Fold this protein.
Amino acid sequence: MKSPNPSQLILLSLLASSVSAQLVFPNVLRQRKPIDRTQGHEQEPILNLPHVGMPASGDGDSGSTPGDPVMISDVIGKERGINIFAGFTRDIESISNRLDHGTENTTVLAPLNSVVTQLPRKPWEDPKDYAALGENAYEGSKGEDRAHRNLRRFVEAHVVPVSPWKENDKVKTLDGGEIWYETKDGKKIIQPGNIEVDSVANRVANGELWVLKGIINYSQ
Ligand SMILES: *[C@@H]1O[C@H](CO)[C@@H](O)[C@H](O)[C@H]1NC(C)=O
């Protein structure tokens, strides 16, 4: 893994010191969805690596009106402990659309911020890319595309296309891996990998939002 550049270090320390921090995926995405500064306060951009970061309001694009059923997209941005992952879901269009509509139910497995920031590499980094392309693997527009594809796999590994999801039911995540969960001492444990579910944070019309103390293995 390459060592972070100085601006990344600053952002990393911001991350470490701020619970409201979000990882910020790169510029391309910011141009598509500029940060809304009309609220009178600015959201701190968080990690300016190859990607992502939106205000935590979560319902930015949904155009929901009072009386509409509440969707995962309405609640995911409001859970402070997982707002890094929430930002990732908003950057993957197929996922953000899915979470914004009631046509398909979803169980979202959102790793805690503390888990994401402690990963040995960023979710969009793939050692194979560094091996093939060197330390500039994620620079330029091709690099951003590459990072985006990698991030997408990470997010898709945390999206279960079923809800309610029953104990011991083996399901394939959108990334294709097969997972299930069991309950031990009142706690849900996702397998394989013994990943503990911290809480079921929300149950809404199109599914559930689970908070994880680990990450699901994803294809690389
Ligand atoms: C989708 O979720 C809702 C709310 O939990 C549930 O009532 C409904 O049966 C689910 N639909 C499917 C196809 O699982």
